[in-house]
Amino acid sequence: MPNLPPKKEIFLTGLWKDNPVLRQILGICSTLAVTNLMVNTLVMDAGLIFTVCMSSLTVSLLRKVTPVRIRMMVQTLIIASYVIIVDIMIMAYLPDISEALGPYVALIITNCIIMGRCEAFARNNPPVASFIDGLGMSLGYSLVLIAIAFIREPLGFGTLLGIRVLPEGFVQWTVMIMAPGAFFTLGIMVWILKYFRPQPQTGEEKG
Amino acid sequence: MKKQVLSVVYMFLITLFFASLVSAVKLMNDDRIERNQSIKLQRIILQVLQIPTGEQMAQEDLSRLFNDRIKEIDVDDRTFYIGYEEDGKTIQGYALPVGGPGFWGPIQGMVGVDPQATQVLGIAFYKHSETPGLGGRITETWFSDQFKNLPLHPIEGDRNIFYLRPAGTGKAANELDAITGATNTSSAVEFFLNKELDHFLKELWASIEETH
Amino acid sequence: MDSINPLTLFFAAIFTNNILLTNFLGLCPFLSMSRQKKSALGMGAAVVFVMASTTALNNLVFYKILVPLGMEHFRFIVFIVVIAAFVQLVEMAVERFFPALYFVLGIFLPLITVNCAIFGASLFMVIRKYDFVQSLAYGAGSGIGWMLAIIAISAIREKLQKTAKLPRGLEGPAITLIITGLLALAFLAFSGMIRVQ
Questions:
Q1: Mutant choice from B1, B134, B143 vs A, greatest count of A C-beta within 10 A
Q2: pTM of the model as a whole
Q3: A204 found inside a domain
Q4: Beta bridge partners of B83
Q5: Tens-level pLDDT at each residue, chain C (197 residues)
Q6: What domain count does chain C have?
Q7: How much is the ipTM here?
Q8: CB count, 10 Å around CB of A109?
Q9: Where are the domains of chain B?
Q10: How many domains does chain A have?
C-alpha cells in the first residue's frame, strides 16, 4: 500500500489543483446544461456530492471482494442506484425543481467524474480517504458550476436565484441562457486557469 | 471456471442488494410523490379559476378548498372542473385540461374560462419537457398572466384566438409575448393551444352547457 | 407522442436540436476525440450506429418489459446495461466477422459506453414518449448530429493546429470549447428551418 497523502491534501487536490471540471475536463455535460439558473445548479451540485461520496465510499468498502473483471459493471450499478435514490428524493421533496431538471439528474450516472474517481481512487484506497477524495472532487465541481451560474443567470435573466440583481433597463444577453453562452463561459474559465497555472506538458513546455 | 461462477454470484447478490435498497426508498416515498402530484393539480385548477389559494396554504387546507369549490365532470372523455363561488351554487368558471405537442415533448396545461365562455380567467402549464430556462419558462407567471381576460373568440378577420409575437411587438389585444430564445416552444404552444381552445368552443362547450 | 413525423424528428435531431450543441450531451469523448478528422470520423460512425440501435432497443425494452411490470424506475440501470451489453456484443461481432473494420473502429467501442449522449438519447425518448419508429429516427438523427459536430470541430482544430499560434493557455480544451460555442451559435440559425407541425 503506497503512502497515502494526508487527508487534507486529498481534499484540496480535488477542490483546486486537479479540479475535475477545469483541469481534468470531466463532467462537462451537466456543467453546461444546468448552469443557466443558480437554483438548478445548487440542486445538481447537492445530488452530485451525495452520489460521488456515497459511490466512492461503497466502491472502496467493496474493493477487496469485487472481482476485477466485473468491477465496471458493479460501479455502474452502485452509481445508478444512488442516482435513482436522489431522483426519488427530489421528486418527493422538491417536485417543482424535479420538473425543471428533467433528465439531467439521471445523467449524473454518466457523469465521468463519478466513474473517474471510482476507477482512479476508490477501488485502490481505504473508505475514509475515498470519501474525502469524492468530497473534494464534487465540491471542486460545485464551485465551478456556481461560478458559471453566477455569470450566466444575471447576464441572461438579470436575476440570481430568482431575485432581480441587475437594473430593469438591462438588456438581457439571451445567448447566455442558451448553449453557446455556456460553452464560451466555460472555455474562458479554462483558458484563464491554464494561463495562470500552465500544466507541465511532455516535451512542449518546460515544467 | 470457479472465478466466473464467483463473479456471477457476486453480481447477482450485489444487484439484489441495491435493487432492494432502491425499491425500499421508492416504496417509502410513493405516497408522497403521488400526493404531490394531485395537490399540484388541485392547486393549478384553483389557480386558473382565480380562486385564491394564499401564499403558503397547507396541503390539507388546499384539498378541503378544492373539494368545497370544485366539481368534476366528464364530457367526451375529458375531465372538466366546475368552479363554484363561495355560496356553492353560482358557477365561477370552468377549468379545462389542454395538451399538445411542445417542441420537445407533450405539454399539459389547464385553462380557466368564465361561466359564459367569453374570456379566459387564467392558464397554467404544469407538465412539459422543454428546455429549462427557455421553453420551460411557459410555467412562469409573467407568461401565463398574459392570458388573463383574453377574449375567447377570434377577433374580426383573425384565424387564431391569440398569437405569440416576439416580445414587445404585439399590438392588438390578442397578440401576446412569446418567450425570447424559445421560438420553437412558443410556436408549438401557439399552435396547439389555439387548436384546443377552438375545439372547446365549437364542440365541447355545448355538451358542458347541457349537463347542468 | 403520435403527432411528430419521424422524418421531421430525424432532421430536427441533426440540426435544430443537436444533442451535443443544444443538449450538451456526449462532450467528454467529443473533447478528446476531436483532435483529428480521422478519429472523429471513426468515433462518429460508431456513435451513429450504437445510438440508433440502442434508442430503438430501449424503447422496446421500456414499453414491452418495464412498463407492464411496473418497473419504470429501474430504467436508468436497465438502459445502461442494455447499452453496455449491446456494445460488448457489437465489439465481439466486429472482431470476429470484420477484422479489418475492427482495426479502424474497435478502439472506439468501449469508449462509447460512457458516452452520456447515448444514455441521454434513451432518457429523452422516454420523456417525450416516442414510439418505436420515432425512437429509431430520433436515435439515428441524434447520432448523425453528434457526428456532424465532432467532424466539423476536428476539421477546424486540424486547420488551427497548422496555421495559428494561440495565446498561452488557450490550446486544447479552452479553444475547443469556444469554437464549439461558435458552432452552437451557428446551429441556432437552423431553428427557423423546421416547423414541428
A1: B134
A2: 0.77
A3: no
A4: B70, B93
A5: 346 788 888 888 888 778 888 777 888 777 777 777 888 888 888 889 999 999 999 999 999 888 888 888 788 788 888 888 888 887 877 778 877 777 766 667 777 777 878 888 898 888 778 889 999 999 999 999 999 988 988 898 888 888 878 887 777 788 888 888 888 888 877 766 665 43
A6: 1
A7: 0.76
A8: 26
A9: 71-211
A10: 1
